[in-house]
Amino acid sequence: MSIAYLDPGNIESDLQAGSVAQFKLLWVLMSATILGLLMQRLSARLGVVSGMHLAEVCYRSYPKIPRGILWIMVEIAIIGSDMQEVIGTAIAIYLLSNQKVPLYAGVIITIADTFTFLLLDKYGLRKLEAFFGFLITIMAVTFGYEYIVVKPDQVSVLKGLFIPYCEGCGSKQVLQAVGIIGAIIMPHNIYLHSALVKSREVDRTKKEEVSEANKYFFIEAAIALFVSFIINLFVTAVFAEGFYGRNATDIGVFLGCQFGLAAMYIWAVGILAAGQSSTMTGTYTGQFVMEGFLNLKWKRWQRVLLTRSIAIVPTILVTIFSGIEDLTQMNDLLNVLMSLQLPFALIPILSFTSSKKIMGDFTNGVIMRILTGVLAVVVISINLYFVAVYIQDLPQSWAVLLAIVLAVVLYMTFVLYLVSINLSLSVGQSVCPTINS
């Protein structure tokens, strides 16, 4: 679960936040992480109390066509995350090879690393978790080293963290703030966490055991997200201090020339660890989502082959005909895409965990319902604002405008439809077993 907060999309978002807004968006990073923890808590509680993960509850709650559309939306988020992993790994290999291995070759190499993780998966989930912990440690050490070497201004760091401001910010900075939210609160991670908690045995006939499991899963998630937040903070602060106003093509120059070649290679190792570890996150999520929404089981290698193929084709075309700067822009748009998919995870998880028939005595309280409801409204509003800003940069033609208006109408129609279905859950029939049943 922690890996989804440290994948290449997050690292790239951190880099861009520092380069376009210095320390001004650190409070957005911290706020998004806290809200992410809130969502992970709800996700874990759903899995612990009901004994079913989010996709399985959706399968039992929604009609066939809306369920299919929802599955497609989640799959888009998974593929987008997979594309970010491909981009991050390719850039890391490009830097580690001193630019001798072209970007398109690095993209192709990512096919092999996927099957390496499938091999590790055979040795059990706990060993795989330990390996993930090792990769997170690599990221903490490498990015922490960069932080110590660059020595960002600590007063500016603290001001950026605790004072919500963005003086002089324009559409570029606002777009980056949206990207941070999309990179941190990832929709497919909410589906993933609700399934991962099922790997621990909990006696759901005993309320005390369920309550205890909820408490320790929350503590576990809080520690994991605190570590991921510190690493994200390291990256943002480093590039806010010395990378402000530059573009992604200058990464190697900035780190290599200003702080020595070791700094550049250490950065690349951290990115490589982020890319490698995020591979299996998408794999596991895709497996749970497909089994839950479609009641269809594929072998993991088949699932990986499908999503990785979809992710690699557009990425390799960009690397062949463009460069690292275009990959950066592509990564930014993928973060925004994640943000646009958020309602399709937020609305179900908020509704299901607020349903007495699903959660029994563990349903959300009034305060939690208000907080999460406000969060959902804010996120959807941010998405619509982004669309309005983004439209201004597109070619002004009737065809483009009509396509955008149609897309927005369809998007909002489906979001409102999901809201109406979930409101009816409070008076509907129970969809999954609870400790009360």
Automatic annotation (TrEMBL):
GO terms for molecular function: cadmium ion transmembrane transporter activity; iron ion transmembrane transporter activity; manganese ion transmembrane transporter activity. It is found in: Membrane. Belongs to the NRAMP family. Pfam families: Nramp (PF01566). The chain crosses the membrane at residues 20-38, 69-95, 101-120, 132-150, 174-196, 217-239, 251-274, 305-324, 336-354, 366-391, 397-419. HAMAP family: NRAMP. The keyword Protein biosynthesis does not apply. It is a multi-pass membrane protein. This is Natural resistance-associated macrophage protein. It comes from Pinctada imbricata (Atlantic pearl-oyster). GO terms for cellular component: endosome membrane; plasma membrane. Keywords: Membrane, Transmembrane, Transmembrane helix, Transport. The keyword Ligase does not apply.
